[in-house]
Design goal:
about 220 residues, single chain, 6 helices, mainly alpha, two-stranded antiparallel ribbon, disordered N terminus
């Protein structure tokens, strides 16, 4: 998708957010995604977001190019909403049969029948039919990496927990084996001592029966 196509994306996003009380029109959203992508390519995306310093830099760049100022909190809030919107579009386009993407209108494409069937099952998401997202390809590159990272970390955590459990089981087995070995060794020593003691007592002449059994 060409970045020059942003002017053709005339669909409307939610213009005002209760979370950040900021106005975002399509050209501003398009420019924000471009700036995010530039910093993403520089390796500035960490744990699915940017640092405070990078957001400040994005704010300065956006202000210089679009004469609009936002706070770091507003950038973060908008980025999170863009990620959620992208994920919904991505699931439709890549995980559902019959849905596609129009880079000119920046919207999901499908037949009216497909929309009616999908909306019947997902009535709360009916607004996606009229919503748009500029630079869907750039968003896919930015946000899919963070989703993949999060999934990988989840798998790594599960593997780490599994490895720890295996090590604990191994330690328990080792302790049990050691305990059994010591018990067997003590039992063997005890039996040998008793037999030796009885043999010695039997050789003693004149030993009274009571003393023999006491010993």
């Amino acid at each position: 998708m060409s970045r020059k196509g942003k002017d053709a994306c005339n669909t409307s996003l939610q213009p005002k957010s209760r979370a950040d009380d900021a106005w975002w029109d399509m050209p501003q959203v398009s420019l924000l995604i471009e700036l995010m992508y530039e910093h993403y390519k520089k390796g500035h995306l960490i744990s699915s977001t940017f640092s405070e310093q990078i957001w400040h830099e994005i704010g300065i760049e956006l202000s210089q190019r679009n004469k609009t100022q936002y706070t770091v909190a507003q950038f973060k809030g908008k980025a999170n909403r863009l990620r959620m919107l992208w994920r919904k579009f991505y699931d439709l386009v890549y995980k559902r049969t019959g849905f596609g993407w129009d880079p000119t209108t920046c919207t999901v494409t499908t037949s009216e029948d497909h929309w009616l069937e999908w909306i019947a099952v997902n009535p709360r998401e009916s607004g996606l039919k009229k919503k748009g997202l500029p630079h869907f390809d750039l968003c896919t590159e930015i946000f899919s990496s963070s989703v993949a990272t999060g999934t990988t970390r989840g798998v790594q955590r599960k593997r780490g927990q599994s490895d720890r459990l295996k090590r604990i089981d191994a330690c328990i087995d080792a302790i049990t084996a050691c305990s059994e070995a010591k018990t067997q060794k003590l039992a063997k020593i005890s039996n040998d001592d008793i037999e030796e003691c009885m043999a010695t007592l039997s050789k003693m002449e004149g030993l009274l029966r009571d003393l023999f059994f006491t010993a």
